[in-house]
């Protein structure tokens, strides 16, 4: 049984899960590879009237003229260096260890959501389950404020802030595990893989016995504060883009960086893919000026639709470097153990190894690198055509991960259930 460490009378979460899974050895070591960044040389472009001396550019703004010229130049360069915006699977191929001969339909996968799923009133549906009140009491002591009151009473403007949203999602997600355990204990006992989106990855590691509930909360508190501080340092944001085969997303980002460098006078302009959601959807993050360039010219690059996200930071990009340095110092002080079940890494899209130093390094890198959720889904649910899928449970606020599961693997989604908070 999975119990959280609340008082001297209760065993720690790590101890309980270790007892539960002491006979399992389900971790597969990932093959880590690093690819050196490709260098690029950008020839200078000067915008003057001679460049637009034809009817095609007569009614265009300077920015759109720049975008179209950049697209032409970058397309010419790409003929010698092939660009594929959607090719990500090959980067993470690995030789899987032999699978145990078990019936997948008797096993479960548990998913934990990330920031953006919070809502006013979260926690009401789980507060009366065993240990949950004590979990919020422990959170009160560690965080220094009444988290349950913040979840129930808000205001929503506070709950939406990174400082409050991440701890709230963490605690309520683990509270949902208590609810699931009370309603169907076998689901928790038979869980073989856990995965979490962004901050949810820490939740997954705590569930897997990698660290205690208290240490996980301290880590998330430091993480949220560091990310909030980094967001305040630069005018940045995030944007969802919907793409197709005709989309030239890499070229769009290259052009946006070039525009920001030449005309916005940004020394090191940043815009990159922060989240791989599914094949036709990515989340971009970076300087606001770069996002605005994409918003004004998305049709030029074949982007179908865009949507700004209500966040004030460029999470999972190099603009979070200062937060990464702060998180490394906190991670050094956290006592961790190898996970007792498979836990997916956002950074690699593959399973975490049992090496603690590698896990800590991955958690710090997660702040500045893309969340490879699409790749993680494909890895977790990869199987032969007639092999059954495990039962999937999303524990925590919102149903975003279920939505993404349906878009990435509709057959696996047929075995999906949500444990509400």
* Unreliable spans: 1-57, 82-100
Q: Mean of residue pLDDT?
A: 85
Strand order, sheet with most strands: 7-2-1-8-9
CATH class of the largest domain: Alpha Beta
* Secondary-structure element order, N to C: HHEHHHHHEHHEHEEHEHEHHEHHE
Most strands sheet: 5 strands, parallel
Structural class: alpha/beta
Q: Tell me, briefly, the overall form.
A: globular
Account of the 3D structure:
There is one protein chain. The protein has 2 domains: 13-17 and 104-231 and 318-419, Malonyl-Coenzyme A Acyl Carrier Protein, domain 2 (3-Layer(aba) Sandwich); 235-313, Malonyl-CoA ACP transacylase, ACP-binding (Alpha-Beta Plaits), CATH 3.30.70. A hairpin with a 2-residue loop joins strand 4 and strand 5. The chain starts with 12 loop residues before the first helix and ends with a strand. It has 421 residues and is α/β, with parallel strands linked by helices. The strands form 2 sheets. Strands 7-2-1-8-9 form a 5-stranded parallel beta sheet. The chain has a 4-stranded antiparallel beta sheet with strand order 4-5-3-6. The protein is built from 16 helices and 9 strands.
Secondary-structure blueprint:
Layout: H1 13-20, H2 62-78, E1 108-112, H3 132-143, H4 147-153, H5 156-159, H6 162-183, H7 185-189, E2 191-196, H8 200-207, H9 213-233, E3 236-242, H10 249-263, E4 271-278, E5 281-287, H11 288-297, E6 305-308, H12 321-331, E7 342-343, H13 356-365, H14 373-380, E8 391-395, H15 400-408, H16 410-413, E9 416-419
Parallel strand pairs: 1-2, 1-8, 2-7, 8-9
Antiparallel strand pairs: 3-5, 3-6, 4-5
Protein name: [acyl-carrier-protein] S-malonyltransferase
Pathway: Lipid metabolism; fatty acid biosynthesis
Main location: mitochondrion
């Amino acid at each position: 049984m999975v119990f959280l460490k609340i008082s001297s009378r209760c065993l720690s979460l790590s101890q309980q899960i270790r007892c539960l899974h002491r006979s399992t050895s389900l971790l597969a070591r990932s093959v880590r590879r690093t690819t050196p960044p490709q260098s690029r040389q950008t020839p200078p472009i000067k915008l003057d009237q001679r460049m637009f001396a034809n009817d095609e550019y007569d009614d265009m703004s300077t920015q759109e003229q720049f975008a179209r010229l950049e697209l032409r130049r970058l397309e010419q360069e790409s003929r010698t260096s092939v660009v594929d915006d959607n090719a990500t699977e090959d980067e993470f191929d690995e030789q899987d260890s032999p699978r145990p001969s078990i019936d997948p339909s008797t096993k479960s996968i548990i998913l934990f959501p990330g920031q953006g799923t919070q809502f006013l009133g979260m926690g009401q549906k789980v507060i009366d389950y065993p240990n949950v009140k004590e979990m919020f009491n422990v959170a009160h002591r560690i965080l220094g404020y009444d988290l349950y009151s913040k979840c129930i009473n808000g205001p929503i403007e506070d709950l939406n802030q990174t400082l409050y949203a991440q701890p709230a999602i963490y605690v309520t997600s683990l509270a949902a595990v208590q609810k699931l355990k009370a309603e169907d204990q076998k689901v928790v006992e038979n869980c073989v893989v856990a995965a979490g989106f962004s901050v949810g990855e820490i939740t997954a590691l705590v569930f897997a016995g990698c660290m205690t509930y208290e240490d996980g909360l301290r880590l998330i508190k430091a993480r949220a504060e560091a990310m909030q501080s980094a967001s305040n340092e630069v005018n940045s944001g995030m944007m969802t883009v919907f793409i197709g085969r005709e989309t030239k997303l890499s070229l769009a980002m290259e052009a946006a960086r070039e525009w920001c460098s030449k005309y916005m006078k940004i020394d090191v302009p940043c815009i990159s893919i922060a989240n791989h959601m599914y094949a036709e959807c990515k989340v971009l993050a970076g300087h606001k000026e770069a996002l605005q360039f994409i918003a004004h010219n998305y049709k030029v690059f074949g982007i179908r639709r865009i949507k700004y996200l209500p966040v004030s930071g460029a999470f999972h990009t190099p603009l979070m470097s200062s937060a990464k340095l702060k998180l490394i110092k906190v991670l050094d002080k956290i006592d961790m153990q190898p996970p007792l079940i498979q836990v997916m890494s956002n950074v690699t899209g593959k399973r975490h190894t049992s090496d603690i130093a590698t896990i800590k390094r991955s958690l710090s890198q997660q702040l500045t690198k893309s969340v490879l959720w699409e790749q993680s889904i494909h890895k977790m649910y990869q199987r032969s055509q007639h092999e059954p899928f495990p039962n999937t449970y999303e524990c925590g606020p919102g149903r975003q991960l279920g939505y993404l599961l349906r878009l990435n693997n509709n057959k696996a989604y047929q075995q999906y259930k949500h444990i509400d908070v």
